[in-house]
Amino acid sequence: MGTHDGAVALITGGARGQGRTHAVTLARAGADIALVDRCADMGTLTYALGTEDDLAETAELVRAEGRRCLTATADVRDPEAVDAVVADVVGEFGRLDILLANAGVSGGHSVHEVPEAEWDDIVGTNLTGVFHAIRAVAPTMIAQRSGRIVATSSMMGRMSSPNLAAYVASKWGVIGLVKASAQDLAPFGITVNAVAPGNIATPMVLNEGIYRQVRPDLENPTAEDAAFVLQMLHVQPIALLEPQEVSDVIMFLVGPHAAHITGAVMDISAGASARFTA
């Protein structure tokens, strides 16, 4: 028997990266999975986003664990699309127990240089998209009198870095939204928490655009060149953490031992939190 037999989990940004690892980890624990992803690039970003093939691959990995998997292509910035996905999930599985509001994008400009379109894409995905997802699942979870919600913030939701104005603002906003949602939903047996990962070895970090951003002094920086700067953001001497490390913390937050943990932020950032004031 798995720890989540009979549970249903909805994961945004589920095509690849952290979302894929969360999906497989939950499936291995017995949960059925619903995945939603944009599956299209954004012109304001310097790296490619997940694809429909990526989404299909994640679904097959879930099914290989013996669990059912529903997929949807939708943009979390679109509230009607998110509402429709949730309705489909409840219609297919009859319930919805876990939301992982994981969809997120990264981009880099200083506050006085960030284009309006980039701001809208990053904040719309990382913060408004989390709001859309929480709001969409709330009625079902309220009716069930139970639910676990985990939103993905970042170590940059608890600190800052130059040339990341929109990203930093969005990830700080996620933490505020989580704390407000935790209070609003507590009377209904629903917990709402956040994870704040450091640099995770996913395509969001492992791409040439990020390498150039963190090493503007080099014409064609490599992953090895970027690792020096990425490690500086952590306290422990490591540049990148694995997605599974985030999944393991999420499994605790959605598991039986975290029933009375809500409104919390769990840092998975190789000690970056040692630099925070609280």
Concise synopsis of the structure shown:
This protein is an alpha/beta fold.
Q: What spatial order of strands do you see in the largest sheet? A: 3-2-1-4-5-6-7
Strand content: 5-15%
Name of the CATH homologous superfamily of the largest domain: NAD(P)-binding Rossmann-like Domain
- The level 1 CATH classification of the largest domain is Alpha Beta
Helix share bin: 40-55%
Number of strands: 7
- Overall tally of domains: 2
- End-to-end Cα distance, whole Å, is 39 Å
Keywords:
278 residues; alpha/beta; Rossmann fold; 2 domains; 8 helices
Secondary structure: elements and pairs:
Blueprint: E1 8-12, H1 17-28, E2 32-37, H2 52-64, E3 69-73, H3 79-93, E4 98-101, H4 116-144, E5 147-152, H5 165-185, E6 190-197, H6 208-214, H7 223-233, H8 243-253, E7 265-268
Parallel strand pairs: 1-2, 1-4, 2-3, 4-5, 5-6, 6-7
Helix pairs in contact: 1-2, 1-8, 3-4, 4-5, 6-7
What does this 3D model show about the protein?
This protein has 278 residues and is an alpha/beta fold. The protein folds into two domains: 8-203 and 246-266, 3-Layer(aba) Sandwich (Rossmann fold), CATH 3.40.50; 206-239, no CATH class. The protein is 43% helix and 14% strand. The chain is globular and about 55 Å long.
